[in-house]
Design a protein that fits this description.
The chain is mainly alpha-helical. The chain has 5 helices and no strands. The longest helix has 18 residues, at 49-66.
Amino acid sequence: MSENNAPLSANASSSNQCAPAYQFNAAAHIALLRECINQKVWNIPHGQSNEVWNRVLSNFHIAIRKEKGHEQDETTAANLQKQYNKLLATFKKNQIESLRASGTDEQYTDRDELLQDIVDL
C-alpha cells in the first residue's frame, strides 16, 4: 500500500492525532464479503493484489454509501483485506457469535451464507 493509505497522515503525526478507525457493522461486512466474492479475492493472480483490492475498496465505498445510517466510509484497501481475513478466520473457527454486537438476524444469516460460500470455493 502507498503511504497515502497509512493510518497517520504527515500532519496528524506532528499533532499526535490518528485518523479514526473504520467501524465495521453487519451491513459493512455484507458489502465487503459480496465484493470479495465478485472480485474472487481468494484467487488473485500474482502481481495483481493491489489492483484487485483497490477495486474492492472502490466498490465497497459505493455499496456502503447506499446503506442508510452508515455515512462513514473512510477505510483503505489494506484495512478491507485485513477485515476480510479476520472475518474468514473467525468464521472458520466457529466464533461468529463474537461478531454479533450489532445488526439484525437477517444480516447475520446473509453474512454467514456469504462466508460459507467463500469457504466452499
